[in-house]
Amino acid sequence: MKGQSIHHICSNNTDTIMCSEKTIYNYVNSNLFSVRNLDLPRKVRYRPRKKLINSFKVDKSCRVGRTYRDFMEYVNENPDTPVVEMDSVEGIKGGKVLLTIHFREPQFMLAFLRDANTSQSVINIFEKLYWELGPSTFNMLFPIILTDNGSEFSNPSAIEFDSQGNRRTRIFYCDPSSPYQKGAAENNHELIRRIIPKGNSFDCYSQNDITLMMNHINSYGRKKLNNRSPHQLFSLFYGNKILKKLGVFLIPANEIILKPELLK
């Protein structure tokens, strides 16, 4: 309505418009916006083009130097570096979504509620963690982050560097269609689905609800951890002071609830 092209709008709002230009044109063509085809001079002038096989909007150049092979090489060169796995858990399409951050060694997971599955919402969470924890603590907790190829993770530099250009982490991507490469996080999502079954919306929950849910999950003993809980191991590795900053607390073993009744 200001005379800007769809391309101009998308290229200057890549962290909030999480779909391709082609999709935007389809929405306009379907009269889903107040803007119509008549408002797009070039649209009226040109014949419809053949449908592209792949209209994926993410600039794949962000993955250069951040592939899973690069990740394995970095880990081999720095074997004592802890790994964090990052992922998204959707409720219903278009609704609120979770960002999950999984610490591989202690099997400890954080989850943050986001209003939309956008790149900017992920960046905002890491900015908040960076300043609440402090740069030195953040750098210790997040030396490496392994994630998938979702468009919400398409701006790695905004997470890797602070506003002064200081490096605070390194992000690597799994190979396409290879969720097993971050299988620890995927397995932990099963516990989330015990409490909020797949297909249920997250819109009715607050961040306090999500934090409560994760406190119960992180307090749950694991056989692979010699029947200790992720909370206990995280506390052993990093101390209770950090847990307190994160708003995390231990649930007594006999009071843990891993069913939908927890949040009702």
SSE-based structural type: alpha/beta
Strands side by side in the biggest sheet: 3-2-1-4-5
- Structure annotation, total helices: 11
Number of domains: 2
Roughly what is the average pLDDT, rounded to an integer?
90
CATH class of the largest domain: Alpha Beta
CATH homologous superfamily of the largest domain - what is it? Ribonuclease H-like superfamily/Ribonuclease H
Which oligomeric form is depicted?
Answer: single chain
For the sheet with most strands, the description reads: 5 strands, mixed
Q: What's the Cα radius of gyration?
A: 21 Å
Shape: globular
Question: Approximately how much helix is present in the residues?
Answer: 25-40%
* DSSP summary, beta strand count: 5
Q: What share of residues are in beta strands? A: 5-15%
**First-to-last CA distance:** 45 Å
Low-confidence stretches: 53-57
CATH topology tier name of the largest domain: Nucleotidyltransferase, domain 5
H and E string: HHHHEEEHHEHEHHHH
CATH architecture of the largest domain: 2-Layer Sandwich
